[in-house]
């Protein structure tokens, strides 16, 4: 079991009447890639800023490496941040940007230049040291911001939606690179994002935030396959819920239940239901072809709507169900999870 | 927006007339300063540089010039220090009375100079034992602060806070952040504000009249005093022409600095 490097207890932050963060308890483990995931306004960035020291909590405490840093300013904390807008210093060259942290800590010139060059190489930007930040592309600025933080060898690297400003292709590429860099340097990463795919692909563990509180904490698999609440089920993945009377009619139990779309099979009305499966009758409302797969939106006879996704493993459209066709949706009972509302 | 050919022509003529009204008189002064005539007759019967030579040798002109430069320099310095501090306080922090302070700072530039002048004059003569060169400098600083403050505040707002947060995050304390990040990024705005403040102070006459101690003559005051003395007219022309040239420089520098910023050091 890895040791706890950041321990937040009862973290609370209000902005006027709004409680942005409401009594958050969080342990970040040494060396892990932890993602704070949530919609905007859910408090994830405020938690990150309180760990970095930019925001003072109204209540609660933050420990880094066993030391209480609640009242310590940002420059006294052994963490570094990669900002959403990169926040590179426009009046300094790329190399000077990276050297900045070492310079204010009075690291000798020779060592600091060497370390800055090594950091620049680690983000694959050798030869860009003399450029001005304004001469770089968004992805390159992103890497400089990363190198500027990592060169200080912080105990924890905080990343505030660092990929938000990049286009999709570059973002996917940077996701892989970030993960690789994290493995290479072995530093704990705390990563803020509102993008569920990003969270699922990169993280060791995910903290899902909603309205200033932690809705669920777990591995990507746990959070995706066993969402704890209806909110998590909807935010991480597609909201695919059976609730109220529909749940009672189909499952024989009341409550709110989540079934992931890819677990649902779309078959003809006359198909037989295998043992260990639940089935529900409905009508196809929408068929959306998305290349790799096809999405079916199905209105249920008992009320409500479910989405099913089928892989297009055959050249032809899988199943070939059409709009308006009466169908049967089936899934294995172990794929339905009760969630809190 | 596209304009018809006729509209364009009309606008061009109007623009030409407007610019003519402003710049032809300035041109006349410049030419007159080289005029061989003693009066302000037009057209000049010949050209000479003797008035320029006489103006440069004139003790009154030289003394007034140094007074103006000294007053403008000190008033600008005061404005730079106070204006920068004010802009940092009002641009970076939220506190009770912030908006009111902002209004109070900017007000002197909107108030008629004669009101500021009389008010300052009253206070100086009644409570502070009379007028000196320092009361004149204080008088000028009241409006110099405004231009520095406005320039600095605009820059601070444009910078946003994240570069300063990044600096703190990388281990710099408040002073290191100011000297290494905030100030260098504000510098060109401060130079532009300072140059404008200097220019404002240099040609100010109303507040000067009310706040200058006895015997203290700035260049604009000297011009005013000598304008209607027949013997001095050619020299006044030279001084006025010189002022035109000197005044263009700061404006040019200030504009160049702010446009350079827009192009080069955009904020990441």
What does this structure look like?
The complex is a heterodimer of chains A (341) and B (268). By secondary structure, chain A is an alpha+beta fold. Chain A has two domains: 4-235, 3-Layer(aba) Sandwich (Rossmann fold); 241-339, OB fold (Dihydrolipoamide Acetyltransferase, E2P), CATH 2.40.50.140. Helix content of chain A is 27%, strand content 33%. Chain A has helices at 44-52, 94-104, 109-122, 138-150, 168-185, 196-202, 220-225, 230-235, 244-251; strands at residues 4-15, 18-29, 33-37, 59-64, 67-68, 79-82, 156-160, 188-193, 205-210, 213-218, 241-243, 256-259, 265-268, 277-289, 293-300, 305-311, 326-332, 336-339. Chain A starts with a strand and ends with a strand. Chain B has one domain (56-262): MetI-like fold (Orthogonal Bundle), CATH 1.10.3720. In chain B, 77% of the residues lie in helices and 0% in strands. Chain B has helices spanning 5-32, 50-57, 59-92, 98-110, 113-127, 133-159, 162-169, 174-202, 206-211, 219-226, 233-263. The longest helix of chain B is centred in the N-terminal third of the chain and has 34 residues, at 59-92. The model of chain B is unreliable at 262-268 (pLDDT under 50). Chain A binds chain B through residues 52-54, 73-75, 79-81, 83, 85-91, 100-101, 104-105, 133-134, 141, 148-149, 152, and chain B through 160, 162-163, 165-173, 176, 180-181, 184-185, 264-268.
